Structures
1.
Amino acid sequence: SVIDSSSNAQPLYSKVTNPTLSPSHLQDLPGFTRSMYRSDHALITPESHVFSPLPDWSNTLGAYLVSPAMGAHFVMYIAKMQEGSKSGLPPKHIERFVFVVQGLVTLTNVSGICQTLMTRLLIYLLTQSISSKVMNLLHLLYLKEGMLTWKIIFPSQLLAPLINSHFLTPPERQIMDFQPGEFLNVKEVHYNQHGLLLLEGQGIYRLGDSWYPVEAGDAIWMAPFVPQWYAALGKVRTRYLLYKDVNRNPL
Amino acid sequence: SVIDSSSNAQPLYSKVTNPTLSPSHLQDLPGFTRSMYRSDHALITPESHVFSPLPDWSNTLGAYLVSPAMGAHFVMYIAKMQEGSKSGLPPKHIERFVFVVQGLVTLTNVSGICQTLMTRLLIYLLTQSISSKVMNLLHLLYLKEGMLTWKIIFPSQLLAPLINSHFLTPPERQIMDFQPGEFLNVKEVHYNQHGLLLLEGQGIYRLGDSWYPVEAGDAIWMAPFVPQWYAALGKVRTRYLLYKDVNRNPL
Amino acid sequence: SVIDSSSNAQPLYSKVTNPTLSPSHLQDLPGFTRSMYRSDHALITPESHVFSPLPDWSNTLGAYLVSPAMGAHFVMYIAKMQEGSKSGLPPKHIERFVFVVQGLVTLTNVSGICQTLMTRLLIYLLTQSISSKVMNLLHLLYLKEGMLTWKIIFPSQLLAPLINSHFLTPPERQIMDFQPGEFLNVKEVHYNQHGLLLLEGQGIYRLGDSWYPVEAGDAIWMAPFVPQWYAALGKVRTRYLLYKDVNRNPL
Amino acid sequence: SVIDSSSNAQPLYSKVTNPTLSPSHLQDLPGFTRSMYRSDHALITPESHVFSPLPDWSNTLGAYLVSPAMGAHFVMYIAKMQEGSKSGLPPKHIERFVFVVQGLVTLTNVSGICQTLMTRLLIYLLTQSISSKVMNLLHLLYLKEGMLTWKIIFPSQLLAPLINSHFLTPPERQIMDFQPGEFLNVKEVHYNQHGLLLLEGQGIYRLGDSWYPVEAGDAIWMAPFVPQWYAALGKVRTRYLLYKDVNRNPL
Amino acid sequence: SVIDSSSNAQPLYSKVTNPTLSPSHLQDLPGFTRSMYRSDHALITPESHVFSPLPDWSNTLGAYLVSPAMGAHFVMYIAKMQEGSKSGLPPKHIERFVFVVQGLVTLTNVSGICQTLMTRLLIYLLTQSISSKVMNLLHLLYLKEGMLTWKIIFPSQLLAPLINSHFLTPPERQIMDFQPGEFLNVKEVHYNQHGLLLLEGQGIYRLGDSWYPVEAGDAIWMAPFVPQWYAALGKVRTRYLLYKDVNRNPL
Amino acid sequence: SVIDSSSNAQPLYSKVTNPTLSPSHLQDLPGFTRSMYRSDHALITPESHVFSPLPDWSNTLGAYLVSPAMGAHFVMYIAKMQEGSKSGLPPKHIERFVFVVQGLVTLTNVSGICQTLMTRLLIYLLTQSISSKVMNLLHLLYLKEGMLTWKIIFPSQLLAPLINSHFLTPPERQIMDFQPGEFLNVKEVHYNQHGLLLLEGQGIYRLGDSWYPVEAGDAIWMAPFVPQWYAALGKVRTRYLLYKDVNRNPL
Amino acid sequence: SVIDSSSNAQPLYSKVTNPTLSPSHLQDLPGFTRSMYRSDHALITPESHVFSPLPDWSNTLGAYLVSPAMGAHFVMYIAKMQEGSKSGLPPKHIERFVFVVQGLVTLTNVSGICQTLMTRLLIYLLTQSISSKVMNLLHLLYLKEGMLTWKIIFPSQLLAPLINSHFLTPPERQIMDFQPGEFLNVKEVHYNQHGLLLLEGQGIYRLGDSWYPVEAGDAIWMAPFVPQWYAALGKVRTRYLLYKDVNRNPL
Amino acid sequence: SVIDSSSNAQPLYSKVTNPTLSPSHLQDLPGFTRSMYRSDHALITPESHVFSPLPDWSNTLGAYLVSPAMGAHFVMYIAKMQEGSKSGLPPKHIERFVFVVQGLVTLTNVSGICQTLMTRLLIYLLTQSISSKVMNLLHLLYLKEGMLTWKIIFPSQLLAPLINSHFLTPPERQIMDFQPGEFLNVKEVHYNQHGLLLLEGQGIYRLGDSWYPVEAGDAIWMAPFVPQWYAALGKVRTRYLLYKDVNRNPL
Ligand SMILES: [Mn+2]
Ligand SMILES: [Mn+2]
Ligand SMILES: [Mn+2]
Ligand SMILES: [Mn+2]
Ligand SMILES: [Mn+2]
Ligand SMILES: [Mn+2]
Ligand SMILES: [Mn+2]
Ligand SMILES: [Mn+2]
């Protein structure tokens, strides 16, 4: 089954939930943070996460990483659920995408039909609620109404092939992989925004004039037109989750 | 009574009304100010306060410290009342919070019921007007309609226990205390805004890439997502008044 | 009469129309300008003025110095009229203020009543048109509808006392004078915006972290909350024209 | 005919389509780009172009260079068409201007009337669609509804005289030419925005405090009030295409 | 006598010994200082003075403000003497200049001849020692051997006329006075170094690209070629003591 | 005995040898370092230490932290000895000071007399060599000839009282202790240089315009005249080892 | 004769002696200067010249523009002579080069032989003194002993051909000419130093990261290895005088 | 033989002699250079090389990349020889190292014994002269007397094994190789200087706070204590030549 296929003890994205440079490693450096917020981009690193109860969710702590208050047209956040936690529903006409960083969640749609999601599943949710059987770390994107011009087919058809491969071919929500030494061919400048969560590996992200060493667990917001480029370094693959708004008239 | 309990001659927050580094100490330094306004935060220090008559108030001088013109969704200001001064009412659907920095004020609600407030009282006002018996220094926050999702119970129930303790448990309007050497555990990055008035003590506030020495009497505005951190220094407790907008969907 | 009183040959504000550091003095410095535009203020110096025909005016060249495109809620511009030039009317519900820097203009209101204005007159215009008998240099402010809460009495009553004194006591549009060595007592931080035209003298303007040498003919825009301070230098009085939006609730 | 007149083998604006400093010359410089995005201007150089299918167009790749997401009120982009490519129509009430950088396109209006455009033609399109006979590189501007106060006469009258001269006298969309050593007389500061594509030559563009070497193929966005200045250098003429919004009340 | 002439109770340069912005005024601002040290200049303000016993002096505390360790070819320091304090002698071939900021000192030359100095006396010392009858604050300059090409005649001849006037006509050690609004005509760039102590008044010092508000009690070091300019502000005269090395071949 | 008194298992300065933010915690952040080198100061953090064999020492790895190549007049380094390691002798006329961060060393003077040193001992060495019985981490200062004007009495007399107290009263080589919240009273500007090793605790070091979070294990170099200030934070004492050159004529 | 050949009334390098942007044009801009001094270059513009009597010269005022105090190994200065002025001799083993910017001087060598120099003559002087018949403006370079490896033949042979051409072929002291639009092919980085005086024309000088508009009368110092580049602009030729130390081993 | 072993037509380090981003690619970008010179490091890229005849060499052009004038204690330069070119000898007590980037040279020692060197040979030269049979590009280091504490055995013994391996084991002159994605483990801070020539590949060099994309042909100087780090990117190996001064007492 879908669930059984990840029977190895080592969590898939363990450096997101337990980063090499954890907040406790910085406990003796008063005032130090790698987090940076500029008008055209932000780097949000684990020691800056502020968790508080999510409104309309039960028994869940969440940390908002990106929101319209910084100039984005979407919300990106991390939700920590426990056994018995239950999500609220997305506001009307708002699309919600879920990536299960760690653990298992059950989706229940308005007809009461349930489906279990596990780590590595990126899923589109319009009216479903989420409940949790085990401790979970979710990565969520909320999109403003009307910003997307296409729809993902209901996830049941997609679940199987997603387990062992890149699963969402539409470029709007990409899983990007880089081998060590590999980098973006284009030093991109475009009108699209990005929300990014680094799942595996490490490298250098250039954003505007700034160069940031990044590692798994770091999140990035890129405003429209910020020059951007990534190079993967070290001995393991880099994988990141990338939101990009496309297929719309920029006017 | 509530009023009598502060019979000591020394005003509670005397460094707010009479800062160690008063404007007169800077009178020989033409053009010098510690005030700073950047796109994601502001430090407003006493030598920059511009007092002028408050519209709709009688016999009151006010200095606006924060307003939507700088990107905030609230107004924070200081009002200097004298005996016989009387406030205007807040605009309709606008919530007003009052903190009496020094002196005594009388609240009168629409039914004509009065209540006396003294230093250290943080109070929620929807339709009450304020009049003053003695010279007062008030710290006020105006909040835009609809931004808060809960209500404080009418202050009469709250007055007594507020005198000698932290009194407003909801995190939205906090009194934060730090012992010397204590600092914020998290180098916070969040979508919420802050309005802050330093009531006692001194320390270092990091806002984005800037580090500011601050002391009682200084005010701060923090835009969403500015990295922020405080450390208390010296030999006395730091206490500050903190506005934070919470409990709402950031989308 | 009002007009006769300025019978001296030397124009009143000759350094505005003929600055000590004229554009021709900079003709051999390719790319050099003292003009500066930052997010919270702008300095606009004569070599950067771009004159083009004013829409709806006849035979008039204008240079816009401040506009909402830079974050202001008003328009400030200089209009060069010649004999026979005629203004357009302000858009409906828009207030217009005129300061005659040099020359003579005739006001005609909707009833056809005319009135002659000369240098040094700051005047409120709602529906009047302006025509010119001699070459004029006007300094104009356009204010968005509803931003002012008071009205100036029709200028006929004001003309006489205005000639030899500061004439507009309301603080919203001030004539500010400084003797050499004099400076602003407060290093101001406030929610109000400013539009400024330096009519006489020279000094140093501090805006945020920047210090600017300024002289007659320079114009400045100050966004809300930019720390600001001026000191007059040299051997003559500094006089500047200052727009400030006051008397309104900043919420 | 119009088409025959450019029978020389060398394309007119070959450095736009094949810049001296092509993306491949930078392939060994990881993370290097000359592109720059600041709050008041942007330089977009060829190695930063991101081409993807244009929505509503058939068989066409486009790269957006300027859009409202960066603060502009227009869209500027480059479209690569092939034989048989066909454009979508502009959104209703949106004006579209086309400059054929290389190749041939056919315009078809709603009545089915066709007209062929070739390199060097800047044309106004309200309801026409474009189809391509040969490989084309188009430079397009989309303008928001209502921003222009005048109309260009239908292009059929303009085509003939446009071939060998500067063809659009209204200043809103200018072809600007500079001989080597020539520079802008005024260091301009104005409320108007610009979109610029450098067609021939090279020089220095000063934007705010920054000085940029530029060459054919570079594109620039200038926000309102950014101080701006250009000097042409080298041995050949500089020619650039310039959008400027004029003839409207800046309030 | 020389001494009696300053019988007014108010010390002459009281703001040097008791500055408006004293260290105690800054005691609640942890880490704040106006002092600045750059490669081409330094501003040393009172809260940064570090006093320790002066080697070879008895019962005297001194604070070095300028030394060769920062690139200067002289030493400038402040010495606090008490009754009975006695200086060491200058090293051989080193010239020493003394300005008595406050109090009285007695000079004794090698022949045992004594002379009393009081506030406002700038004096050249080669082999004399200084002893103190009352609490003194001295400002001293040590000059490296061979750097001066002229000699001051023994002070006995100079004492009388020095009391009420500028007393040292050679430009090497100047007393500079400015009336409010007055400023340096030349924005100087020269190979000479300066050591400066502000005795009275306040103003703005521009050093390189930096603008510093300064007041009595502040000291400045200027390296060769730093662009420099001063403007006096406020209601009282500015007076400063200025060391400048002149009359030598700069090769 | 002196040695026995530290019988607790926990090493005294364990955060120097095993810092909270060890190099391995930064292994996934390519290119990241907290180290900073400016013309007037340097922060050298553990992930930047380059260890290589020390010339003239046997079986010892050393990392130079400060040297004259950066403008200092001393050398500061860390030496890792093992059982059987043996130091070279200091160059002639060079003074050497040793602080045993961890472990035990034996001093042997030219007469063959030995003495055992343990953690916390700061010792003056002119001609002694050092050998090691166990793994050691030494902190050494080399001073150029003639820079010190006093001598420490041979360590045998000093050993006993050093164990439980601050042991070197001369200010030249200080152990500085701060309780949490405590800070330097003076924002120091002086001609003296410093070499500093943070042994315990954490806080903020201001150097010039920069503010650095620091923790045990960090080293600092301060050039003459860099403004400097420290505040201790957290729950434990800060202790640092400080070299300062005093008691000499700065000319 | 040599002298007669410049009989036109218009001085050759009149913009050096009377710059378009003269100090008097900046008299109303307190504190403003275009002069800039950085560690690797300096721009010295006319409003910053400080003239004082030249030691060992009679009746001459000089302004030093470059000296070893800024890191150069030469001195560059301007000397204003009058009728009857007489120079001192260069120090022994020091070479002196003279360029007559305006007027006439007479050279007298040790044998008493005289020779008249006029504008445009660059001349090598080892032991000659200079006397002046008419008001002169000289540009002089002093070179430290031993830095040059070749010698110029005594000027008498060179005078004639120098009048109407570039006269000093050795690259060490060059006259550089640029036509409008022309620029340096190489963005030079080299170990050699430069002293430069702009005699005619205007353009842009890039020095390190800085871009400077320059015009006739401006002087520049370039330290070793500062990246450097010039482009001539406007309608007239640029000519500058350039000192460069070559032909020596840089070790 | 040594020479025959490189019989492949493709030169070994062709990107040094013919860089991907050649000066001609930048010919249309007036004033643009990637070269940077700061106080603690320099990047020297091909478009900034200034070639001129090398003193004491015949028929050779050289470009100095590093010299003591920038703070180094060595000289690094590139020499272009042609058939028949002949070097001068190094100054007495100066050591010279040669790396043949391209072509063949013959060494002749004082006894007249010759030896042929080819590309990839790094060789120590004390008294040998170099002559060239074919066009050569040499990379040379000159070291000041006494800076090295060891000697390389005469090259004849070393030639054979050098051809296909890293050949100089002493760390002082290293060949460093990195596979794509590989980076320096330590973010180094040390007292040693570096001279570096990138022979193959590309990556990112961090120097102090700056991040530089670099490619084959770029040269770097690193002053003592500049924090430094390299990461190799792309698909091919990075190889660079690195000078480092070690094995000496840093005092
Ligand atoms: Mn992208
Ligand atoms: Mn917070
Ligand atoms: Mn104001
Ligand atoms: Mn323009
Ligand atoms: Mn001076
Ligand atoms: Mn200190
Ligand atoms: Mn050069
Ligand atoms: Mn290294």
2.
Amino acid sequence: MPASYAYLGPEGTFTEVALRTLPEAATRELVPMVSVPAALDAVRSGEAEAAFVPIENSVEGGITTTLDELVAGEPLMIYREVLLSITFALLVRPGTKLSEIKTVTAHPAAQPQVRNWLKANLPDAVWESAASNADGARLVQEGRYDAAFAGEFAAARYGLEALETGIHDAENAQTRFVLVGRPARPAAPTGADKTSVVLWQRDDHPGGLRDLLGEFAVRGINLMLLQSRPTGAGIGNYCFCIDAEGHISDRRVAEALMGLKRICLQVRFLGSYPRADIEPDAVRAPLPGTSDDEFASAADWVARCQDGRF
Amino acid sequence: MPASYAYLGPEGTFTEVALRTLPEAATRELVPMVSVPAALDAVRSGEAEAAFVPIENSVEGGITTTLDELVAGEPLMIYREVLLSITFALLVRPGTKLSEIKTVTAHPAAQPQVRNWLKANLPDAVWESAASNADGARLVQEGRYDAAFAGEFAAARYGLEALETGIHDAENAQTRFVLVGRPARPAAPTGADKTSVVLWQRDDHPGGLRDLLGEFAVRGINLMLLQSRPTGAGIGNYCFCIDAEGHISDRRVAEALMGLKRICLQVRFLGSYPRADIEPDAVRAPLPGTSDDEFASAADWVARCQDGRF
């Protein structure tokens, strides 16, 4: 039996399409799961080698179910990310005309991306939420709704046709997916990498979060995501999911993480992995004074000072 | 006709219960709306004097629909907040036994708060999402599901009985609601106030967010919420919804907002209003050097210096 990747199912959703863009997916059995927690639990239990789940969306922001699963429970690590542009097709039973559509369905996350299109083209259609976009397509096939918003690729699977394609209210609507596995050594740096961590503050005081971010800033590290998530200890109690540019084997990143480890109540390392948004040769150079060489020669200099040999 | 408050309906949800704790609600007509955008649009159009909507939850974090509505569109302002402890009752048709329950329903937001209870007490029950907790109760009344999770107060309205009360996975589960109106002069400071703003960074560079937070930190202002929301310009493009301690008429807060106005691309003021979590006499004193008197005497001193009279 080949090693398997669990993913947020059902089949025929954007998640599956994104997963199939990973070369390593071709050699694995791909197993759809009913939910993000179920996909990640399959990894924790050893049932699956890895899980592939959405984590961020340019319209909705961080996918909180995924972030909360990575923040709590047995530690997991991110090994890959995939960016997928999201545009919807309006899927109908063959022959259905736009004027005949009284009911439409899709996953609730699709709604903000098709709202304007609906208002302009089907102002009187009644919206009902589906468990997933693929499930919405299935319900159209069964005759329960007149039309579903889903990826165009879902049409063939459910015997539907795309009455309209390329529907997206927000330009550049993208979803970011991650491949998550049990903790192990991160892949080697590619030159265009990202490091994800979760930070818990030691206490709540003016400037507390600013001080945490300072560990990145003083080392010239740019942040790509900062998403607060409730700790469960009541309103106003948050931990912070942070994506930073760079790899834990970069000295500036390693030193920032050491600084955070010293000042935070808790730090959870979620992995260093290749960025999907940029090629290594397009990554900007480190800020002056923050390259590995400069870190190394500064460490040498301090060592010489400690010996009185400056 | 009395002035009306729109609120996130339907009747019989936690939102209505929270709204009725406000003394001013007693003299208004309370109008349930189908969604948060609909409630806020009623204010923007002048149809309603104010809207009452959930904005933050200790289990789920910021309510993104509400935040996104306040971030974009015609500006609105927050005038009041209410904190409500959330515990669920399991509502059934009178006489139903726990062992007879095969299907349960509630709003999806209820699920993380009842998940453990369900696993322990009804491990085989099938969950179906409802449009609201009150709607779930109605569907139980109609016989479509066996049980609904909702506020205990919803039982009477739908002819149901509470088989179990006080269900909550997370201790101290609370939801924060806000009363939102058209922009006007904020209420006078009470001594325990909160100021809400939305910040857009001028550009993306290492330390950018740290610098924004520094405007609060150097003036001893504690933050109570920092929630990133997508700007719609693609993955990684965020603005920041921030709640800070204090009132815009406090000199430290006014000066922090001036600093942000200078360094941000855009700042949206969402209001200064009384905190619901603490009484004025329990608020800690400003950090040394950040009281109104100290700001005033420091301004005097600089003015004297400018005159050569120090």
